[in-house]
Design brief:
Shape: globular
Structural class: alpha+beta
Bound molecules: calcium ion
Number of strands: 17
Distance between the termini: 32 Å
Strand content: 25-35%
Length: about 325
């Protein structure tokens, strides 16, 4: 920074960002931004990954980033590395989600359908309904992900389900559940109402840890079915936007294919830019590959071209609030 702008006066601030304290992380990031505004800076370069950048409402740090722009500060922020791209084959067989961004799923409305017996039994006495991933007349309450697990790897991915209630004014309770497609057994839950996300329209958790694989060097391909589950006691009175995201930087990517991956008028796949990075007033920057091992994950780039990392975060995103 000093070499680029030797006469510039430099300031640094950091945020206390941990996955186990999403709300205070958001407040901490907002405080760091506000301290920069108070210091009278001209440019803010923000490279903080933060899980509580909400998609359906303006979070504390996204609001602070907006205030910085409104104060005339050039706000430069990371896009992030949260994209997952479908691979071209799974165990030698080509797959339809090849090349599609599959890290997230957003629907403009929760579409209620009956849950499998395993989900109902786990939720009891709560009565639940499951989201229908099929935007057409058919019903499919499972989004199947294919995972590639190699010896010595312990795939633990942070993931979240988010819905369109306002933070600290929740009406609905939703959570994510993963099941084993062969047995139907529940394997992972994304939990609502934890202290880390208290008052937020978020269910969060670490998933796929049960897949630790210690077999031969060849990869093992496992399936996991995602279900988005809702407490049916509260009637749906309006369209309730709902979203799922794999929230992980880890390489190589463990999730390599998805059953549903093609966007429609109501359902969007792959968008991972939310919060500060989605502010129209932000200058959002993606990365190009820096080190050779990236070519093991992304198609090899011409060294003379400034291509982006294939797992850079991407849009599209929809804003559900004003300004
Ligand atoms: Ca349907
Ligand atoms: Ca399915």
């Amino acid at each position: 920074m000093h070499a680029i702008a030797p006469a510039a006066e430099l300031y640094f601030a950091t945020a206390d960002v941990t996955e186990s304290s999403t709300v205070s992380s958001d407040q901490s990031t907002a405080d760091a931004i506000d301290s920069m505004i108070a210091a009278g800076v001209d440019i803010i370069v923000d490279d903080i990954m933060e899980v509580f950048d909400t998609a359906f409402s303006e979070g504390l740090s996204a609001a602070a980033a907006r205030r910085a722009s409104e104060a005339g500060i050039a706000y430069v922020v990371l896009a992030g590395n949260l994209g997952f791209v479908g691979v071209d084959d799974v165990d030698g067989t080509s797959v339809p989600s090849d090349g599609y961004q599959i890290a997230s799923y957003t629907s403009t409305a929760f579409r209620p359908a009956a849950c499998p017996a395993e989900i109902e039994a786990d939720a009891a006495p709560m009565v639940v309904q499951c989201h229908d991933f099929d935007p057409g007349p058919g019903v499919d309450v499972t989004q199947r992900y294919t995972l590639e697990v190699r010896s010595g790897e312990s795939p633990e991915l942070y993931s979240l389900v988010e819905w369109g209630d306002q933070p600290y004014n929740l009406t609905n309770t939703l959570y994510g559940a993963f099941t084993d497609p062969t047995s139907g057994a529940l394997t992972d839950l994304l939990i609502p109402g934890t202290t880390e996300a208290a008052g937020a329209p978020l269910s969060i958790g670490t998933v796929f840890g049960s897949l630790a694989y210690s077999g031969p060097p060849a990869a093992e391909y496992a399936g996991r079915d995602l279900l988005i589950v809702r407490d049916a006691a509260v009637p749906l009175t309006a369209d309730l936007p709902v979203r799922f995201q794999l929230w992980s930087n880890d390489n190589p990517r463990v999730v390599v294919a998805a059953e549903w991956f093609s966007s429609t008028a109501t359902d969007t796949y792959g968008g991972t830019i939310v919060g500060r990075s989605a502010n129209p007033s932000s200058i959002t920057v993606a990365a190009r590959p820096l080190y050779p091992s990236v070519s093991a994950v992304c198609p090899t780039l011409d060294a003379g071209l400034f291509g982006l990392e294939c797992f850079s975060s991407t849009g599209p995103q929809t804003r559900y609030w004003g300004r």
